[in-house]
Structures are given as structure tokens and as C-alpha cells.
Amino acid sequence: MTISLNHTIVPAVDNEAAARFLADVLGLEYGGLHPVARHFAQLRINDQLTLDYMTVPEPTGHHLAFDVDPATFDAAVAHLREHDLPHGDGPGTHTNGRVDERHPLGGRGVYFADPSGNLYELISPS
């Protein structure tokens, strides 16, 4: 049996704002509220995975890491810089404005947080 992740729930102060934030950084299209469970703002990451953002009063941030191709990585870093969004080269230094050119998992890495405290990590081959 093949196992793959179908979706995960991501807590947020404002579910739609959080989904739009990541969609903008990654160059994805935010499709709106979940068609059945309308309390989730659903962001399709790829054919297999959606992030379902749920508004909660006091969200506890999650760490979500994505492997991305070099073009997506470059576009995401450009978006972060163009919009003066804090980003950095490590989970504890995610606001230092740097990109990790020697990510421990290979290639380059960048970290950034959304307004709800979710920490995103992008990893791309060099």
C-alpha cells in the first residue's frame, strides 16, 4: 500500500488570510473555502495535498517544509523580498533576510512565518 498525505489542518487567526498568504508566496491560486467543510480555507499544494486552514482563537504555529524546484524557490524568495516579508536562513533565524545556500538536506533553504506563527520552510536543489 502506498501512503501519502492527503491534507493537514493548519491553525490560523484568519483562515482565508493565511491561505492567501502562502498562495501568494508560492505562486499558487487560492480556491476559496472547502466545498463541503466550509469552515476550512483550502489551499491546494499539488494533486495529492491540500492545506486546510482553520480559524482558531489562539493558534499554535506548525512547521511545514516543502521541496520546491529552483524556479519556484527563486520566485518565492523574490516575493518575500519585494513585499518586505521577514525571511531567513534557519528556523531560529527566520527573520535575518538571508537564504541558506548549504541547507542540511541539500541545496538551498529559506524560512518564513505567516501572521499566525506557522513557520514555512522551502528547500530547493542548487
Overview of the structural elements:
Residues 4-125 form the VOC domain. This is VOC family protein. It holds the Pfam family Glyoxalase. The protein has helices at residues 15-26, 70-82; strands spanning 7-12, 40-44, 50-55, 63-67, 108-113, 119-124. The chain is of the alpha/beta class. The radius of gyration is 14 Å and the shape is globular. The mean pLDDT is 94.
What key phrases describe this protein's structure?
three-stranded mixed sheet; 6 strands; Glyas_Bleomycin-R_OHBP_Dase; single chain; 2,3-Dihydroxybiphenyl 1,2-Dioxygenase, domain 1; globular; 126 residues; alpha/beta; 2 helices
* Strand ordering within the main sheet: 1-3-2
Which value, in Å, is the CA radius of gyration? 14 Å
Instruction: Kindly name the structural category.
Output: alpha/beta
Indicate the CATH topology.
2,3-Dihydroxybiphenyl 1,2-Dioxygenase, domain 1
The separation of the N and C termini measures: 33 Å
Helix and strand sequence: EHEEEHEE
CATH architecture: Roll
CATH superfamily name? 2,3-Dihydroxybiphenyl 1,2-Dioxygenase, domain 1
Protein name: VOC family protein
Organism: Actinomadura logoneensis
